[in-house]
Write a structure and sequence with these properties.
alpha+beta
């Protein structure tokens, strides 16, 4: 009986060690880029983007944000803050006019400190926060059927940004 308990305990330890080693081998920084094309002109979309760091009522799932850089009306860099005010990532929002509408992309960069979360993040890309924001923004300009695309996941480099 004691042997079985030791075998089970060794198995649990082996799984936990595999998760930790896998997490240490995984990328610490995650980049997700999502894009949408809206029919609304940039002059309509940009004022809504100006409200993002105040967590607007139309997009309650957004975390707290702090403005880092703005080049109106084309680019905003925002720092993502948790409930304690600690930065955990950044958004780069790029907007440009296209065929009377707006081409909009959001690049989310996050640091994953927890090695086990890093391991599991290797197998999935969490785009819910960015997708929710883009859908809510589209809804604010009267568009309910939008296609969101452009997922990527890799370590951030100095030249990485939205496309």
């Amino acid at each position: 009986m004691m042997n079985w308990i030791l075998v089970i305990m060794a198995g649990v330890v082996a799984v936990v060690l595999a998760l930790i080693v896998g997490g240490l081998a995984s990328q610490r920084t995650r980049l997700v880029v999502r894009a949408v094309r809206l029919r609304a002109p940039l002059e309509t979309v940009w004022p809504l983007l100006m409200q993002v760091e105040q967590t607007p009522a139309w997009c309650a799932q957004l975390p707290n944000m702090q403005l880092l850089l703005e080049s109106a009306p084309r680019l905003r860099r925002l720092q993502l803050l948790n409930d304690d005010g600690v930065a955990f990532g950044e958004w780069t929002i790029a907007a440009s006019p296209r065929d009377g509408g707006t081409q909009l992309s959001v690049a989310e960069t996050c640091e994953l400190h927890n090695v086990i979360a890093r391991f599991f993040n290797t197998f999935s890309i969490d785009t819910r926060r960015v997708d929710g924001f883009l859908r809510a923004l589209a809804s604010q300009v009267g568009e309910t059927d939008v296609t969101i695309g452009g997922v990527s996941m890799h370590e951030r480099t100095a030249t990485t940004g939205p496309t």
